[in-house]
Design brief:
The complex is a heterodimer of chains A (381) and B (141).
Chain A lengths: L3 E12 L6 H16 L9 E4 L10 H4 L6 E4 L5 H14 L5 E9 L16 H5 L5 H16 L3 H16 L12 H6 L2 E3 L2 E2 L8 E10 L11 E10 L11 E3 L6 H13 L8 E3 L5 H10 L8 H6 L16 H5 L3 H17 L13 E8 L3 E8 L1
Parallel strand pairs in A: 2-3, 2-4, 10-11
Antiparallel strand pairs in A: 1-7, 1-8, 4-7, 5-6, 8-12, 11-12
Chain B lengths: L2 E3 L15 E5 L5 E2 L14 E5 L3 E10 L20 E7 L4 E7 L12 E11 L5 E9 L2
Parallel strand pairs in B: 1-9, 7-9
Antiparallel strand pairs in B: 2-3, 2-4, 5-6, 5-8, 6-7, 8-9
Classes of the chains: A alpha/beta (381), B mainly beta (141).
């Protein structure tokens, strides 16, 4: 097994870009990542390309040059980018190749995700009767969680205000307008207790990461970031997940718990050694729940941690320092690579106004989404 | 007006006492909803039809305050006529719960653990003028 280094990251801004295709954004992200790495497209020995809307992300070679490399297209729900990165890392760690990249790109219509429930192994009536909505799942999950562990609506508003505030410091973010807790709590209820300004939105964007064998990283950069662990897990019987007609009882832990535990074990690190964190904040409640599912606190401790400001950029557990999904939106194929872009910038000390103080050395990223899939990545200097 | 179910095999119909139709595994006793051919508990294929309990308790709930995308949704999505609905998870036994629409959508009238019971609700009218029925749970009085 070879160690793997991140030598370059590139990000096409997230937002809405009329007239520009997802594949063009992907090409821009790759060029930025290659430039950051000091590498050439023709050095790349393989690529993985993630997208929901684009059938063939590998068509990006039309703009970059078709070189004949193995280029595998990936879709794995909201964990798509973590899956691309996981497979790219394994190409190197298992010795198949020395250098390659993962890219993600998407261009979603400006509305909630919609699909055919039958394609999710769910009956047609599930969609016909108004069950097939991701947002209502998050409402149901966080409503019960708040009841069980004493989390207040104010805490959800604090998470939202923090993520929009961080987004206002990020020139690549979709929503750069800070929102106060009051504005968030006054926005309309979409799925009780979740309100409009507590949700992220599907949008557009691309991100890319160039990886190589760690023992070759010095050829490209003096500040490599090491990929310490990648882990992807799916739901087990009894988990309470995004789409479902039934669930067995008792409720068991979701895939984020298993992916996080696996990643920490692979990395040989614990949650107390992590300096900067990116979590899947599909909505504000998801960030709160994921804090506990990833192992950074016990269930219920979030109420006090967030009130104390511990999840702010200057806090003990800086979470979603670039504004997370709430401020950046979610181009599904790219979202997780945005997290890696931010962690890499933070660990190199290149995060500008968003820089976590004290020279952060370990970063953690987590994705979660339908139909019950999670991906976790741990990086370090 | 004639009434037809939204899907065959979803609930017993016609019936004065409709029940949701699930399936149970003969090998591991896992009960699932709706009925399916294989058991996700033990991955076996010895499953038989099982009628579910018509009463349960509310595990969790939310409201659907904006119209779902149509299609697939067949209910009213009119800008001025869409009526928000409640949706939740109903525990029907010690070993399983199901997702169901709720007849109540007022957060002040929904409580964790409250008893609820199965009812059929009209969802839309089909091309032949039949009232299309789906299932929901209502608070038990």
């Amino acid at each position: 097994m070879y160690d793997v280094a991140i030598i370059g990251v590139g990000l096409h801004p997230f937002g809405r870009f009329p007239g520009k295709s997802a594949v063009e954004m992907g090409a821009d992200a790759i060029r930025l990542a290659l430039g950051d790495a000091g590498a050439d497209w023709r050095d790349m020995q393989f690529a993985f390309g993630g997208s929901y809307e684009v059938d063939n992300p590998d068509s990006v070679v039309t703009y970059l040059g078709p070189t004949g490399i193995p280029f595998t297209n990936v879709y794995n729900g909201c964990a798509t980018a973590a899956s691309s990165l996981d497979m790219a890392a394994k190409m190197i760690s298992l010795g198949a190749n020395d250098i390659g990249l993962a890219v993600g790109m998407d261009k979603h219509p400006a509305r909630a995700f919609s699909a055919d429930s039958v394609e999710y192994a769910l009956p047609a009536w599930y969609g016909e009767t108004g069950h097939f909505l991701t947002t209502k799942y998050f409402g149901m999950k966080v409503n019960r969680y708040m009841h069980d562990y004493g989390i207040s609506e104010q805490t959800l508003a604090r998470v939202g205000a923090k993520n929009f505030r961080n987004g206002s410091l990020n020139p690549n973010a979709f929503r750069r307008q800070p929102l106060s807790e009051e504005e968030i709590l006054e926005s309309r209820v979409l799925n009780y207790p979740l309100r409009q300004y507590m949700f992220c939105a599907p949008d557009e964007g691309a991100a890319a990461v160039v990886l190589c064998r760690a023992d070759q990283a010095h050829r490209y950069t003096s500040s490599p970031v090491y990929l310490r662990a990648t882990a992807v897990r799916t739901r087990q019987l009894g988990a309470f997940e995004v789409h479902g007609t039934w669930a067995s009882l008792p409720v068991v832990d979701g895939p984020t718990v298993q992916a996080s535990q696996a990643a920490f074990e692979i990395a040989g690190l614990g949650p107390d050694e992590v300096d900067v964190i990116q979590l899947q904040d599909t909505e504000a409640g998801a960030e709160v729940i994921h804090m506990a599912e990833t192992g950074f606190c016990a269930d219920g401790e979030q109420e006090q941690l967030i009130a104390e400001g511990q999840t702010e950029i200057g806090g003990r557990l800086p979470i979603n320092t670039d504004g997370g999904l709430m401020a950046n939106g979610e181009p599904v194929g790219a979202s997780g690579l945005r997290q890696i872009h931010e962690l890499t910038r933070q660990l190199r000390g290149q995060a500008g106004e968003r820089q976590v103080p004290g020279e952060p050395k370990v970063g953690f990223a987590q994705l979660y989404g339908a139909p019950g899939t999670s991906g976790v990545t741990i990086v370090s200097t | 007006v004639a009434q037809v179910p939204i899907a065959e095999g979803l609930f017993t119909w016609p019936s004065d006492d409709p029940r949701l139709i699930g399936s149970a595994c003969e090998a591991c006793d896992l009960v699932v909803f709706p009925a399916q051919r294989f058991c996700p508990g033990c991955s076996g294929d010895s499953v038989t039809e099982r009628l579910l309990e018509p009463r349960g308790s509310l595990y969790t709930w939310t409201t659907q305050s904006f119209p779902p995308v149509a299609p697939p949704y067949v209910g009213d999505t009119g800008k001025d006529t869409f009526e928000p609905y409640g949706i939740g998870w109903v525990q029907l036994s010690d070993t399983m719960m199901i997702e169901a629409r709720l007849t109540e959508s007022d957060p002040d009238k929904l409580e964790f653990g409250m008893p609820v019971e199965l009812v059929l609700i009209p969802l839309t009218v089909d091309d032949e003028g039949n009232e299309v029925l789906s299932f929901a749970f209502q608070p038990t009085n």
